Amino acid sequence: MVTHQTIGECDTALTPEDLAALRENLHEQRLFRQEQLRQFASTSRADDRRRQADAAQIEVGVKLAASARMVLADVEAALARMDSGEYGTCHLCRRPVERHRLLIVPQARYCGRCQQVREAGR
User: How many structural domains does the chain have?
Assistant: First the structure.
């Protein structure tokens, strides 16, 4: 079993190249989510005009749009943390978020251990 301490400092340090790649990834995600929300908005306007849309399709669209807005907010918050120098620090324990975690989920706010605690509390 890998523990938080076993992962060690070598996995938490982000290189300038890592940060540049993560910033680029976050910008791409932001553009994707913004475009996704534009598409949802135009689809919903078209659906309003037709008034023939199935209620289930509308509900799915609403939920997808809400999810896209949530991810977009997380991405923008991560970019703001980068700009303020707080990126890569866990919001709960204030330890560094593991490098491998940020490379997979660049908008992560919590280290792996704190994320597990949050999910277990749900």
Answer: 1
